[in-house]
Amino acid sequence: MLLADKNAVVYGGAGSVGRAVARAFVGEGARVFLAGRTLATLDEVAAELAGEGAAVETARVDALDERAVDEHADDIAERAGGIDVSFNAVGHGDVHGGPLLEMSLDDFARPIATAMRTQFLTTRAAARHMTRRGSGVIMAVTATTGRLSIPEVGGTGVSFDAIESQCRQWSCELGRHGVRVVWLQTTGLPEALDQTVELFPAYGTGSAMTRPELVAWMRRSTHLDRLASLAEVGRAAAFLASDHAAAMTATGINLTCGAVPGR
Prior knowledge:
41% helix, 16% strand, single chain, 7 strands
C-alpha cells in the first residue's frame, strides 16, 4: 500500500474533494483524520469509510481559526506519533455569475482571503511537526480557473494562483527539512456541482447554463473531451502523498485533461 502506517489530516473532509481524497488515502493504508466545521457530516463520511475497514477519526475544526487549527494538529501529533500528510480541501466561499465591474470588493476578496488564511494556518500547523521528524507532505487543490482567463468567476482564479504561489514559498523554506509541498490541479468536477442549482452562470457564453450544458462547455476546453473524476483526484492525491513522488515538490499534478497544457 502506498500510505501504509501514515497519518493523514484532511481539512474540509466532508466536501466532495475531501471525501474522495480521504477514501483514496484509507484505501492505501493511511490512518485519516477528517477535520471540518460540521461534525455531523464528517461523522457520516467516517462511518462510510469505517464500513470499508478504515481507521478514521473526526474533529470539528474551523480552518480559519488559528488556535483551533494549531491545537488540533498538536493533538494528532501527540496521540498518533506525528503527521505525515496534510491535505487542504477547504471551500473558499466563491461568488460567481457577475462581471467584476458589478462585484463588491468583499465578494471578490473573500475567496482569496479565505484560501490564503486556511492554507497558511493548516500548512504551518502540520509543518511544525513535520520539520521535527524530517519528513512530511503538505497538499492543496487548485483548478483550471487559476490558469485560464474565464469571465464571471470573481476571485476564484486569483485564489488558485495564490494557493500555488504560497505552496512554492512553503516548499523553498521546508524542503531542507525533508517536507514536500505540492498540489493537484483539476478540471471542473461534475460530481462536485451543487445538485440543488438548476442554472449555472454564463461564464461569458451569453446565457445561463443547465448542468448538462455546463459540463459540455467545460469538456470542450479539454484535449480528451472529458473531465477529471473525483476518483481520479483521490488516486492522484494518494500517489503524490506517497514515497513514489518523493522527488516532487513546489509543483502540482496536472489533472486538467489537457485544458491547461504543461509547461
